[in-house]
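Much of the work behind modern protein science is quiet bookkeeping, done one molecule at a time. The fold becomes a row of whole numbers, each drawn from a learned catalogue of backbone shapes. The protein below has been through that process, and both of its lines are reproduced in full.
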Amino acid sequence: MKLKLVLVIVLISTVAFGNFFQRSDEYLRRQNELKSTLEFSLTFEEAKEIIVKHYPELKSDEEVREFIIERDIQRAIVDGVEMYYCDMEHNLFTRDPELVNRVPEWSAGNVLLVRYLLEEYGPRQTPFATFKPAHSPYFNPKNYLVEYKVHTERSLLPDEGSLRIWFPLPLQTAAQENISLLEVTPKEAVVGIPRTSGDIAYVLFEFDLSNLVEDLDISVKFTFTHYQQQFDIDPDQVGEYEARFTRTTRSQKEASTSMKDLSSLPEALLEMRPILTYRQKNYTTT
């Protein structure tokens, strides 16, 4: 009885796997047919027009067909009709250096693309400097490892209340990438998710001082890549400064005089005066 049951199970499994592979083969066949329909979409007349444009010495259909066979141009039977590869013209150039020389504008476009793709792997260097590539203002990447550490004795903090501390992180920009947060201590004090995109990048900690018994120790470790930036500006392309913007910008003199308002700030915030001064002078105000 057990032997019969085992044989039945084996038979059912064999049939099931057979149907699975049959369906898989059918699926692959249909996918290949669809791919052929999409990729081989040029008729003979369309292929002939492309070929004759670059090889005008071919006068008849017979000469064009001989050319197709001789160059082994990609073609396939789709729904009973011989069709030609949709990007056949590109293949003609890649196979015929003489054609590339006759049509320099085609090769020029491709040379620029290849240079752009390869510049990342071979920046121009001299013994004293690294120069930026021709097609990007970002070059000379440097990798950084940063570790913040804060230690404060428990006796210097209030007995109770909420203490919130944020640490700046590198912001994801065109000139800064590969940001990786390696270590955050203590993890349980982190509020939400550390941010490295948007308007500001940071990790926020919050502590309930009534539960804090030992000294306060915080550490944040991260890595990132920063690129040197050099922008090429054509002075002839710089427009006139519009007078309407003078209403929303101030000179450095005006920004500096407005710093007198900081005298009423608490002592803790006065320590941030250099930062506030910098922002006041370098940001547009309204």
In short: Residues 267 and 273 are 10 Å apart (CA to CA). The longest helix spans residues 2-39. The mean pLDDT is 75. The two ends are 91 Å apart (CA to CA).
